[in-house]
Amino acid sequence: MSVLLIEPFYGGSHKQLMDLLQEELQEDCVLCTLPAKKWHWKARTSALYFMQTVPTSSNYRFMPEHKLARLEKVIGVKRNGDAYQSEGLPGQQESRAVMKTIDAHPESGLCEPQPGLCTTQHEGLPSPAAAPVQAEAPERTNPCQGEDKQHLTFNLSNILSGLDYQQRPLHIAWPHRWEHDKDPETFFKVLMKLKEQDLPFHVSVLGETFSEIPDIFSEAREVLGSSVLHWGYLPSKDDYFRALCTADVVISTAKHEFFGVAMIEAVHCGCYPLCPKALVYPEIFPAEYLYSTPEQLFKRLQNFCKRPDIVRRHLYKGETAGFSWAALGSKFRSLLAAEPREDL
Fold first, then answer.
1. Cα(280)–Cα(51) distance, rounded to whole angstroms?
2. Nearest C-alpha neighbor of 134 from the set 10, 2, 3
């Protein structure tokens, strides 16, 4: 039995999960993706795109008989041996038109077994030679272009060397995509207010950047000046985790979050989390790590800047072990290897 993985936003934590599943499940995997950009359009239209492009195979069609019968009546699906071909699916032309506005190149979709991982071929699936070109990498820009090279490389150890650990200023990390749904405006306005009051702190602004970067980033980079330890995406996972391990506090100001992998990773690296009292965060973090307003976030950071030792002595009161692959791997395997049931 094969496992079909579909990911319309193949980047960041989405890509991390897909790659982990492919590597760890030890199954025959087929991964279909689209580039990690234009999230809102992908949410609206990717189902139509994949409906037309995912290769038909009896190796992973888990749909029960009663749902197949209903599907035949609704969209005219016809049986063809063990596979199913669709004819005249509604929205077909509309989907093609919309997807062309999303990705200028039709080959940007990936639908093939990934080389070096699970590469077993199946009847009816495209071979690597005939498969579409792999999904294009997310567009990244270098927000530090033209600046001193020390901001382009990971140099936290050099900056912090020679300073007594307890005497260092509070180190704040923001490890999120540089996009509006992560609300960088609120985050930077709080930091600028700390700067206005001459409170000592360092900040590392991490996370992926894309073709469009909110204006607040360039404004904040100038205002924060020497408070910046690192500014920009770290492609090396080791460097990324090293940055989190040197930080004291990790902040989320997100307006849109289904889980928050970056926050869990930072807590695992010893950071004190401060998250909105909204979205998924109250389900994961104890109440003392939540704030309701930007003013509350500012007051918490104000106190931490004055007494960073309080944060550094703190032991996290939540639990992160339950989110590890060691805890969840068997559950994923059981779920994806399950026999088809009538309640699916």
1. 30
2. 10
Tens digit of pLDDT for each residue in 66-94? 655 665 665 554 444 344 333 333 333 33
Q: Length of the chain in residues, anyone?
A: 344
> In whole numbers, what is the pLDDT of the chain averaged over residues?
75
Give start and end residues of each alpha helix (H) in 30-162: 39-53, 65-75, 92-102, 156-160
> According to the model, what pLDDT value does residue 68 have?
58
Please state the separation of Cα 50 from the chain's center in Å: 21
Residue whose C-alpha is closest to residue 219's, from 170, 184, 256, 243:
184
User: If you compute the radius of gyration of the chain from its CA atoms, what whole number of angstroms results?
Assistant: 23
List, in order, residues 6 or more apart from 12 with CB less than 8 Å away.
36, 177, 208
Q: What is the pLDDT of residues 8-28, one digit of tens each?
A: 988 877 888 888 888 887 667
pTM equals 0.63
Domains of the chain: 2-137+326-336 (no CATH), 149-313 (3.40.50.2000)
